[in-house]
Specification:
The protein is an alpha+beta fold and about 300 residues long. It folds into two domains: about 200 residues, Alpha-lytic protease prodomain-like, CATH 1.20.1510; about 90 residues, Cation efflux protein, cytoplasmic domain (Alpha-Beta Plaits, 2-Layer Sandwich). A four-stranded mixed β-sheet has the order 3-2-1-4, with helices on one face. Helix 1 packs antiparallel against helix 2 and helix 3 runs parallel beside helix 5. It is elongated and about 85 Å long.
């Protein structure tokens, strides 16, 4: 089992434990804010399961129907997570509205907060693991799952503040008000996750820093060629696709042109791990006098 799959399975186990703790906290307090926190944890389980399925699909090798691989499956999972975050926020707003109309004193608020705090600590630790490892493995699904858990951590912190304020002042409206404020923050977070995932589905180019490394690798290792132009990039999951045209002298042999391509591919692979490079070799009359300058 790959590291990404192990992390996805771990998310499911953590999600079950956290949901159980938060449900217990709500049950002994009757807090609308704690109920809202538990509701979001049900989304964590759903999205963790979706991430697990997406990672398994993304790791399948290329086949006749998917010659470029299945890497984009992770972006679909990340979009689903963003949508589920937004749905959870809407549920929380509904519960907050009901609590605002009929505020009530909470039962055992301190005990409930201690239980919820344990769940929050577990979520925070696991969120850091997912984001760090997801970026290392270039897994959009794991990164999105980690960011989702961070919103859950923020939710829990906000809920704790609201419940403590309500308990300290006796003004029980703090409970639903804090739940509503946290829901607004979750809406913003969910929209960001969706936006970032859609950029991958739309074949958005790699960041400028990555593009600069690719240009440098081509310029440094293409000696013997004339120029490189029409550079295009896109990313799908952990894989970066690079494509460009390489102009060589008209009298150059196929062997020599292939040697240049091999050097460039190796350099790009070192600069950008998990890259797939496609080079179109062209004769001198295809020169555009634009693009990447070849270093001598």
């Amino acid at each position: 089992m790959s590291t990404a799959l192990k992390l996805a399975v771990g998310s499911l186990l953590v999600g079950v434990i956290v949901l159980g703790l938060k449900t217990l906290a709500w049950w002994i307090t009757g807090s609308v804010a704690l109920l809202s926190d538990a509701l979001e944890s049900t989304v964590n389980l759903t999205t963790a399961f979706a991430a697990l399925i997406a990672i398994r699909v993304a790791q399948r090798p290329a086949d006749a129907n998917h010659p470029f691989g299945h890497h984009k499956a992770e972006f679909f999972s990340a979009v689903l997570e963003g949508v589920m975050i937004i749905i959870a926020a809407l549920f929380i707003l509904r519960e907050a509205y009901a609590g605002f109309l009929s505020p009530r004193a909470l039962d055992a608020p301190i005990e409930g907060l201690l239980i919820n705090g344990a769940a929050t600590a577990l979520n925070a630790i696991w969120a850091m693991v997912l984001v760090r490892q997801g970026r290392r493995l270039k897994s959009p699904a794991l990164v999105a799952d980690g960011k989702h858990l961070w919103t859950d951590v923020l939710t829990s912190v906000g809920v704790a503040v609201g419940v403590l304020a309500a308990f300290a002042t006796g003004w029980w409206l703090f409970d639903p008000i804090m739940a509503a404020l946290v829901a607004v923050n979750i809406l913003w977070s969910g929209s960001r996750v969706v936006k970032e995932s859609l950029s991958g589905l739309m074949d958005e180019a790699v960041p400028e820093t990555t593009l600069a490394r690719i240009r440098e690798a081509i310029s440094d290792k293409a000696h013997g060629a004339v120029e490189a132009h029409d550079l295009r990039t896109r990313h799908a999951g952990k894989v970066t696709f690079v494509e460009f045209h390489l102009v060589v002298p008209g009298d150059m042999t196929v062997f020599d042109a292939h040697e240049i391509c091999d050097r460039i591919e190796a350099a790009i692979g070192k600069a950008v791990p998990d890259s797939r490079v496609t080079i179109h070799v062209e004769p001198e009359h295809k020169q555009k006098h634009t693009g990447i300058v070849v270093l001598d």
